[in-house]
Design goal:
Blueprint (H helix, E strand, L loop, with lengths): L5 H9 L14 E8 L6 E6 L3 H11 L9 E6 L2 H19 L32 H11 L1 H26 L1
């Protein structure tokens, strides 16, 4: 497994030493980083992406579970705003980890006087991008779709449990 920095990937895609060249309108490309459950190395590729609508559709499509049922999470970088969204997703992951996980940060756990720990940030620190960061990246754009997907998964589990109970009787 090799490690590649995002700026290096962007530079490689446009064939230029300046990664900011990736964001010129003439490029009409997006960098996708897709994490699939059970696969150790994410799939990184450049794809055609002309505008924000295509970016939103691509992000939604790549964050759907595979036909075999494996969870899939993806990051799609099309413009400089997406790098800011990625930084925020990394910060959110660090905030959740620092506060004992997402269960500890659920709304029913908040009380008057409860402390929430905020991580220090260092602009020179290198961060690993993983499936959890990709999940937060996706949720910041498609929170309704993510919520509906979670509700559907819960309904499916309930129906499976009810079917098992019916088959046992």
């Amino acid at each position: 497994m090799g490690v590649e920095f995002i700026d290096q990937a962007l530079s490689r895609i446009v064939g230029h030493s300046d990664p900011n060249q990736f964001f010129e309108e003439s490029q009409q490309k997006a960098l996708t980083i897709t994490f699939e459950e059970g696969v150790a190395v994410p799939h990184v590729q450049a794809v055609q992406c002309a505008n924000e609508t295509e970016w939103r559709n691509l992000l939604l499509a790549l964050n759907q579970d595979t036909p075999s049922g494996a969870k899939r999470r993806a990051i799609v970088i099309h413009n400089a705003k997406d790098l800011l969204r990625l930084r925020r997703a990394v910060a959110l992951k660090n905030l959740v980890e620092l506060n004992n996980g997402s269960e500890a940060l659920s709304l029913n756990q908040f009380r008057v006087g409860r402390y929430v720990l905020i991580p220090d940030t260092d602009v020179n620190q290198v961060h690993i991008i993983d499936a959890e960061v990709a999940k937060y990246f996706y949720h910041t754009e498609h929170y309704y779709a993510a919520t509906l997907q979670a509700i559907q998964q819960a309904i499916d589990k309930l129906e499976d449990s009810l079917s098992e109970m019916t088959n046992q009787n």
